[in-house]
Amino acid sequence: MISNPAHHPATRVPALVVAAWQTDARSNGGLESLSTLLEACDFAPSIVITNRWSAFAERWARLAPVEIRSMVSGAERRRSRLASLRAEVLNLVRNNLWIARRLARFGHPVLHCNDEVALMNFGIGARLAGCPVLFHVRDTRANRNLYRVLRWRFFLFISSRFVTLSSEMMAWWLRYLRIAGTTPAGSRKLRYLYSIVSKPPTVRREEPAPRRSASALVVGIVGVFSPKKAQLELIEQCCRPLSDHDIEFRFFGDLDAYPDYAERCRRTAGDMLGRSVHFMGHVDDLNAYYHQLDVVVIASRHEGLARAMIEALAAGVPVLSFAVCSAREILAEEGAGIVVPMGDYAALVRALRDLASDRSRLAAMSSRARTVAERRFAPVNLATEYRHLLEELCDVAFRRPRRWQYFRTSANDGDLGDFRVRDRL
């Protein structure tokens, strides 16, 4: 396993350009993590590039100018199969040329790509312009085949730093890319940076639904209704067997992103809806509701570092999780939750029954949860780590000359503004 290297003693931070792709979902853990990271820093990006205006874009606009740019994601082609592959390739080329022309004349700003879509649309152009690229990897992958491995090795190749969300996740990617146990140049690019989570607000929301009973164990499941989050299987194999117990399940998450899947979940819940199962829908300020929960369950098919996990810990709520990536590092090793084997719903049911009858164990895990969150996910500490990571890339920028002098801005190209570091203090 590779540990984070010693930080460079330099104090200079290169200018920063951020690129992030947004989906239709109203909530997104990766975008929330990016937003809290940028808000915690004592410096601001020069510009944020994204594909749509949203509540996240409004938050970014308070820090820096926001540029709306069409991005190729491949999602449209998978949905309709009518979109032209040729048009997608041309748009990718257009976006990479666009960013290369604008970056080449402004020193060597670091391009922070928050996801693989942003990396494909702008990362190649940034590298051609001689700018370092920080690729923030937000998830793991459920399947591995030769095409996927080669695709992600290409992403590693064009990245200056391949940043994961935990040490366990970094080791996972080393295995996935089949470079574990070796020390090629690619493996030296890997780093990890935990997501920031702030303390929950002091103002708490009233419970939207009364508890089944005063002693009921209230279980929270957080995440957009989707096959990845596996709410359907959880309802079938966990909620149904526990429907006659004093246990209540509250599902928080967008029901509109995958409406057919959400409807299947409703039909499967059937007579449990409104009794032991509640669909709360999308909640803008979820942190204000964690105090209503006794435990949070994560039953996803795969994760990087689940946003719901770290938000729950910060609110002092223990987490019961399948052995998704980062769960053992954050929960099992710290005693802040329980980890059961992937897909073992019987173990999940047993663990919930045990917790319902052992509230002292819940209280002990709750205390450790807050301690873990304060130590691992504190905004000040992680903002400092991020600054050090940018300082490390500063050397990459200044050591390497611009590769393609062809990319120059013209009077008609516009520009990205002044790429000096913008102090927010």
Describe this protein with a few key phrases:
single chain; 425 residues; alpha/beta; six-stranded parallel beta sheet; 14 helices; 14% strand
Radius of gyration: 22 Å
**Which structural class matches the secondary elements?**
alpha/beta
Global morphology: globular
Can you tell me the residue ranges where pLDDT is under 50 for at least 5 consecutive residues? 1-11, 401-425
- Major β-sheet profile: 7 strands, parallel
Task: Report helical residue fraction.
Answer: 25-40%
Number of helices: 14
Find the count of extended strands (DSSP E, 2+ residues): 15
Q: Mean pLDDT score, rounded?
A: 85
Give the N-terminus to C-terminus distance in angstroms.
Answer: 37 Å
Write the H/E string, N to C: EHEEHEHHEHEHEHEEHEHEEHEHEHHHE
Describe the structure.
The chain has helices spanning 29-40, 55-61, 75-80, 85-103, 116-128, 146-158, 167-176, 231-239, 259-269, 307-314, 327-332, 345-357, 359-376, 379-399, and strands at residues 16-19, 43-44, 47-50, 66-68, 110-113, 133-136, 161-164, 190-192, 217-222, 247-252, 277-281, 295-298, 319-322, 337-340, 422-423. It has 14 helices and 15 strands. The strands form three sheets. A seven-stranded parallel beta sheet has the order 4-3-1-5-6-7-8, sandwiched between helices. Residues 1-11 and 401-425 have low confidence and may be disordered. It starts with 15 loop residues before the first strand and ends with a strand. It has 425 residues and is α/β, with parallel strands linked by helices. Strand 12, helix 10 (307-314) and strand 13 form a beta-alpha-beta unit. It is 39% helix and 14% strand.
